[in-house]
Amino acid sequence: MVQCDFTGQVAFITGASAGMGAATARAFAEAGAAVALADVNRDAVVRFADELTSKGLRALAIECDVANEQQVADAVAATVEAFGRLDMAFNNAGIMIPPAGAAEESAQAFDSVVAVNLRGVWASMKHELAQMRRQGSGAIVNCSSLGGLVGGSERASYHATKHGVLGQTKSVALEYAPLGVRVNAVCPGTIATPMVDRMSAAGELDVDATLSVTPMARLGDPEEIAAAVLWLCSDAASYVTGVALPVDGGFTAR
């Protein structure tokens, strides 16, 4: 894990109860930050916050559906009320829908993935930026995907949302660079998370086929995404903004 010191700083993470969100929240907390854990699964995020606080780390559990802007606004406000400021954010919450042909996919499926993956990032940044603008500082990392850099058969809607995240990231990075706020994105490849496990079990992802086109020939670890996020939020990346960083075992280099 990248060694960073975030003592006295505050991080806000969406989709924080498992997978990449949990790994990143744990890494921030172990590096000295107070962490606000936002997740739609109340029981899971409370258990995770309890785990962190039992180790002497600072954590706040917040039930939040990022598709609901008011809940996002309330979550950011609760973070600032609890910890006094907001220095870093990892907008990680996202969903995957079952593969579907472009001529067959329902509007309901399209709307559901856009609501979380694209609108959720929009709402999260909107309210994070308002606080960071007041402070004159901050770093935001949005979770895109290798799907934000390439296309994918029968996954047009998902890939559209992840491309959209990169468009938001670059545009906001330009707007907020003069205001002391950096905005970047990570583009994970196929990572060993509960979501990937569910997709594999449902026959929606062929892991062996994925590994065959991944130069490193393995799944990524959530901690490897966390390391990238922490670096992007750290002073080591102080001149980095508007980037889409692939963390994908070489997939998009092909």
Automatic annotation (TrEMBL):
<dbReference type="InterPro" id="IPR002347">
    <property type="entry name" value="SDR_fam"/>
</dbReference>
<keyword id="KW-0560">Oxidoreductase</keyword>
<dbReference type="InterPro" id="IPR036291">
    <property type="entry name" value="NAD(P)-bd_dom_sf"/>
</dbReference>
<comment type="similarity">
    <text>Belongs to the short-chain dehydrogenases/reductases (SDR) family.</text>
</comment>
<dbReference type="Pfam" id="PF13561">
    <property type="entry name" value="adh_short_C2"/>
</dbReference>
<protein>
    <submittedName>
        <fullName>SDR family NAD(P)-dependent oxidoreductase</fullName>
        <ecNumber>1.1.1.-</ecNumber>
    </submittedName>
</protein>
<dbReference type="GO" id="GO:0016491">
    <property type="term" value="F:oxidoreductase activity"/>
</dbReference>
